[in-house]
Amino acid sequence: MEKKKTGISQTGARMPVVLLKSLLVSYLMAGALLLLLALLLYRMQLSAQAVSIGILVIYAVTAGLSGWLAGKGMQDRRFLWGLLTGSLYFCVLAALTLIVNHGLQDVGNHFFTTLMICSGAGMLGGMLS
Predict the structure, then answer these.
(1) Rounded distance, CA 76 to CA 112, Å?
(2) Does the residue 6 lie in any domain?
(3) Phi-psi region of 76 (alpha: psi -120 to 50; beta: other; left: phi over 0)
(4) Residue 107 pLDDT
(5) Residue 115: domain span
(6) What is the number of domains present in the chain?
(7) Which of 9, 50, 64, 78 is deepest in the core (most CB within 10 A)?
(8) Residues 14-40: tens digit of each pLDDT
(9) Does 52 fall in a domain?
């Protein structure tokens, strides 16, 4: 017996769920890693440059994790889903930064660099999945 097509493909129906799950896991991981970095800052008196590098590494690792999870969940065009989740990861970070800072005054310095790191790490995670 042949199944009827409903108009929504299997991939399209599970896309929001996979994206939300991958982003949620990556943000939980980012929170834990940022807490660890704060503890290291407190205990070891890290320099501002070491903290900035640590934050960028955390962004790259968690965006890569998000891309990897999205690639595993979607099974096709994994690099594209990884790129999308990395970009969404950055968009949420940028929105939170704008909300906390009440404007664009501190966003300009590393905005493009952080976008490229998050998007590239997400795409790499998707490719590796």
Answers:
(1) 28
(2) no
(3) beta
(4) 55
(5) 16-128
(6) 1
(7) 64
(8) 788 889 999 999 999 999 999 999 999
(9) yes
